[in-house]
Amino acid sequence: MIIDPISDMLTRIRNSVAIRQESVEMPASKIKEAILAILKKEGYIADFKVKSKNGFSVIKVDLEYKNGESPIQHIERVSKPGLRIYTPATRIPRVLSGFGLIIISTPQGVMSGRNARKKGIGGEVICKVW
Predict the structure, then answer these.
(1) Cα(85)–Cα(68) distance, rounded to whole angstroms?
(2) What is this structure's pTM?
(3) Beta-bridge mates of residue 86
(4) Across residues 68-76, what is the average pLDDT?
(5) Which of 41, 57, 69, 122 could pair with 28 in a Cys bridge, judged by C-beta atoms 3.0 to 4.6 Å apart?
(6) Which of 101, 107, 110 is nearest to 129 (CA)?
(7) How far is it, in rounded angstroms, from Cα 29 to Cα 105?
(8) CB within 8 A of 16, min separation 6: which ones?
(9) CA 58 – CA 117 distance, rounded (Å)
(10) pLDDT band at 2; cut points 50, 70, 90
(11) Burial bucket for residue 126 (CB in 10 Å: 0-12, 13-18, 19+)
C-alpha cells in the first residue's frame, strides 16, 4: 500500500535518474499524468505512456538524457499528506531564480508555477524540480 503516490512517483524518477535507466514504470493516476505532462512540456522527461499491465493501468516514463546528463538534477515533494503547503499567486516560489520548475495544483488543474503566476491563481505546491 502506497501512502503518498506522488512521492512514490517522484522517488521512482529520482532513483531511475541516479542509475541512468532509460525508463521507469509506476501505477497510473490522473494527477500523475498531469504532473508528467508538465515535466514533458518543460523538457525534463522525454515522454510517457499509459498502458495496461496485468489488468492495471501503469505509466511508462521515458527519461531524457542530454550529453549523458539528465535535466533532472533534483526533484522533491513540497506539500505532503502530513503538511499541506498552499500559496497565493503572489507568493508562488521561484526555483533557482526561474531556472527550475514548481508544479502547483490549482482549482483550474495542475500547472507550472509560471503559468499559475500569469493567471493569478494560487494553490497547493506539489513539487519542485531543477
Answers:
(1) 34
(2) 0.95
(3) 124
(4) 96
(5) 57
(6) 101
(7) 14
(8) 23, 24, 61, 63
(9) 32
(10) confident
(11) buried
Average pLDDT of 78-83? 96
Amino acid identity of residue 97, one-letter, is: S
Per-residue pLDDT band for 1 (boundaries 50, 70, 90) equals: confident
Query: Which three three-digit cell numbers place residue 111?
Result: 500547472
Distance of CA 128 to the CA centre of its chain: 8
Residue 17 CB burial class (10 angstroms; 0-12, 13-18, ≥19): buried
Q: For the segment 20-71, what is each residue's pLDDT rounded down to a tens digit?
A: 999 999 999 999 999 999 999 999 999 999 999 999 999 999 999 999 999 9
- The upper half-sphere exposure of residue 114, i.e. CA atoms within 13 Å in the direction of its Cβ, equals 10
| CB distance 127 to 35 below 8 Å | yes
Parallel, antiparallel or unpaired: strands 75-77 and 86-87: unpaired
The amino acid occupying position 89 is A
Listed in sequence order, the DSSP H helices in 19-129 are 30-41, 113-119
| φ and ψ of 95, to 5 deg | -95, 125
Q: Which residues pair with 74 in a beta bridge?
A: none
